[in-house]
Amino acid sequence: MNHSSTDMDHTHHHHHTMAPPSGSVHDHGDGGVGHDGKCGGHGGMAMTFYFGYNNVELLFTGLLINSPGEMVGACIGVFLLAVLYEGLKIGREALLRRSQVNVRYNSMPLPGADGTVLMETHKTVGQRMLSPAHFMQTLLHIFQVVVSYFLMLVFMTYNGYLCIAVAAGAGIGYFLFSWRKAVVVDITEHCH
After folding, report:
1. Phi and psi torsions of 140, nearest 5°
2. What is the pLDDT of residues 150-173, one digit of tens each?
3. How far is 117 from 59, CA to CA, in rounded Å?
4. In whole angstroms, what is the distance from residue 59 CA to residue 7 CA?
5. Following DSSP, what letter does each residue of 120-157 receive, concatenated?
6. DSSP letter for each residue of the chain
7. Do residues 109 and 118 lie in contact, with contact meaning Cβ atoms separated by under 8 Å?
8. Cα(52)–Cα(75) distance, rounded to whole angstroms?
9. Are 105 and 123 in contact (CB under 8 A)?
10. At what angle do helices 68-98 and 160-177 cross, to 10 degrees?
């Protein structure tokens, strides 16, 4: 089929591309928004990591970072939130250990390598569902989930400064709190 004589009008087509942020500017405004309200099919969100501090929207509409000072403040806040998250995880474990009831020990025989019989003891711990400790664990779990989603959404801004603050806060929080965590090593486990 010969298309050279066919005159086709393509003015009704909308071609949108999303350019990566340049320099220190990241525009979350309405510049470059297409007829469907989206920018490059990603709703105006950056899909690559960038380092900028202008027009960076943080978690809520209106919480906008527009200066280096605001970015430093946001990074400190995000860093502390990540440290809090790690502390909350370890704190919940400690609280659970203190509230445990109904400790039972079960022993079972295991054949040894040389034909002897070894006894393996397991500790079974229970907790009551309608106890104050379980209600506290439930509330702390809800809070932990909300904080974890906030940190995930901060990371999904793809702002390099904020992503570094999340990672550094999680690392420092783990360093500060995890040494208190009791680690049980099972010598029969072969996949370490």
Report:
1. -65, -35
2. 999 999 999 999 999 999 999 999
3. 59
4. 49
5. EEEEEEE--TTSHHHHHHHHHHHHHHHHHHHHHHHHTT
6. ---TT-----TT------PPP-TTB---SSTT--TTS-STTTTT---S-B---BSEE-SSTT-EE-SHHHHHHHHHHHHHHHHHHHHHHHHHHHHHHHT-EEEEEEEEEEE-TTS-EEEEEEEEEE--TTSHHHHHHHHHHHHHHHHHHHHHHHHTT-BHHHHHHHHHHHHHHHHHHGGGS-----TT----
7. yes
8. 12
9. yes
10. 30
* Single pTM value for the model: 0.60
pLDDT at 124: 58
* Single-letter residue type at 53: Y
Q: Using an 8 Å Cβ cutoff, are 151 and 58 in contact?
A: no
Which two tokens mark 77? Answer: 């806040």
Quote the tokens at residue 181: 């965590």
The model's pLDDT over 58-106, given as tens digits with 9 standing for 90+, comes to 888 888 999 999 999 999 999 999 999 999 999 888 887 777 655 556 6
Residues linked to residue 120 through DSSP beta bridges, in sequence order:
108
The model's confidence at residue 18, banded by pLDDT at 50, 70 and 90, is: very low
Question: CA-CA distance, 96 to 88, in Å (whole number)?
Answer: 12
